[in-house]
Amino acid sequence: xxxxxxxxxxxxxxxxxxxxxxxxxxxxxxxxxxxxxxxxxxxxxxxxxxxxxxxxxxxxxxxxxxxxxxxxxxxxxxxxxxxxxxxxxxxxxxxxxxxxxxxxxxxxxxxxxxxxxxxxxxxxxxxxxxxxxxxxxxxxxxxxxxxxxxxxxxxxxxxxxxxxxxxxxxxxxxxxxxxxxxxxxxxxxxxxxxxxxxxxxxxxxxxxxxxxxxxxxxxxxxxxxxxxxxxxxxxxxxxxxxxxxxxxxxxxxxxxxxxxxxxxxxxxxxxxxxxxxxxxxxxxxxxxxxxxxxxxxxxxxxxxxxxxxxxxxxxxxxxxxxxxxxxxxxxxxxxxxxxxxxxxxxxxxxxxxxxxxxxxxxxxxxxxxxxxxxxxxxxxxxxxxxxxxxxxxxxxxxxxxxxxxxxxxxxxxxxxxxxxxxxxxxxxxxxxxxxxxxxxxxxxxxxxxxxxxxxxxxxxxxxxxxxxxxxxxxxxxxxxxxxxxxxxxxxxxxxxxxxxxxxxxxxxxxxxxxxxxxxxxxxxxxxxxxxxxxxxx
Length: 537
Fold this sequence. Notes:
Elements (H helix, E strand, L loop, with lengths): L2 H16 L22 H14 L4 E17 L2 E19 L2 E7 L4 H18 L18 E4 L11 H16 L4 E19 L4 E18 L6 E5 L11 H6 L1 H16 L2 E2 L3 E7 L1 H13 L4 H4 L31 E4 L21 E5 L2 E2 L13 H6 L10 E2 L8 E2 L3 E4 L9 H6 L3 E13 L5 E13 L2 E7 L1 E6 H6 L1 E4 L6 E10 L4 E9 L2 E10 L5
Helix pairs in contact: 2-3, 4-6
């Protein structure tokens, strides 16, 4: 949508809301997706596969998908943005003499799928000049008639725009009612993806995937304008759920608390740099897990395939780490999975037709496994055989849309609760004499190998002699990944488990965006270096 269209549509939307009636569709009457009903989806998929095989492909798969996303944003008492977009098309991926080829199109017709399939094969042949070794695919179970759907209660696209905007503006008013709260931004984002996958091996699957993200940020400004502090709704995380997630987030009710905490941060005591024991709440810790565990255990990153854009990993060479490297203490277990209801990476089948399974990336503190696709799993064949495990993809293949080629993306990566007992948060705090409890994710930086990093948060409280005391500000801690996780001496139990997540995790060239959840429990880390981020010198 260009600027002129945005201004016109924004005015129409505002007028419709003011008049108390539903606005007209923001999609032009002639903008329906051409060719969408030209042929049944199965016929299109089978025609693409047949054309690829006839052109010389030894393997082919096709993804036909319709992505519908909607974004609404507000600031104080006004609507600042609205987008409702849909894209529909297909992509064909082929193997020709062990080399990948890929092509895509938005024209859903039988002649076009045949043309695109042949184009993918031609590209595969051209790519052979750069082949270092032929691609080998791990075996896969075949699912001739598979289906899956996100476990939603309310389709967010069935909820009126007026209701969504009214909720956001009401939450804004609740935040602005707190003295000292000067600015507030709130938003909602929704995605529905209808995806069909078929391969020459015989799998045919249909999936409908939903994601929802309600968000709010409150900014408080001091009376003399010398300081400002923000508080975001980090205890409300994006989920693979429907509009019920927005209602359960209780934005209006929580807005007052978030605004009050932003105001309290203005008078909080600046932290004194030094070494502290840290108690990290799940609303904060999920991001540290994402950067220091999930990213460095991506096999393509370890192999150097992401070096030019997203970096590499300190886990190299693999044979020196798998089964040997102590990531953390014996009670530390980190799971990769795509099965948790509501997880952002949760699906029934990945974009190679693999039904994902749960697995332990870290087991009893030791690096135990890595994230894989069908192409990557054979690279770990010797390790899997030594463990008595089959060479099998973990189902970590994903593409953000029909026009992008699928590649390795992380599953939900979770720090599991204490294996022996349900440790309460109070126990973690009671064992700290001089420390800080950190709530909510904030700014961060991390090196290209995911080894050295610095993390901030949203809200910080001092811990003295086992009790939470006054609020602090300007806190960030510095880590080296192995030292940090081995400084953990206790973690929470099952009742403290919480799922956070990243809605837009970039990777690849051209870049693609992935959504992923990270479940975790609060943790306690001893003697971590803390700096003051507010100091100018």
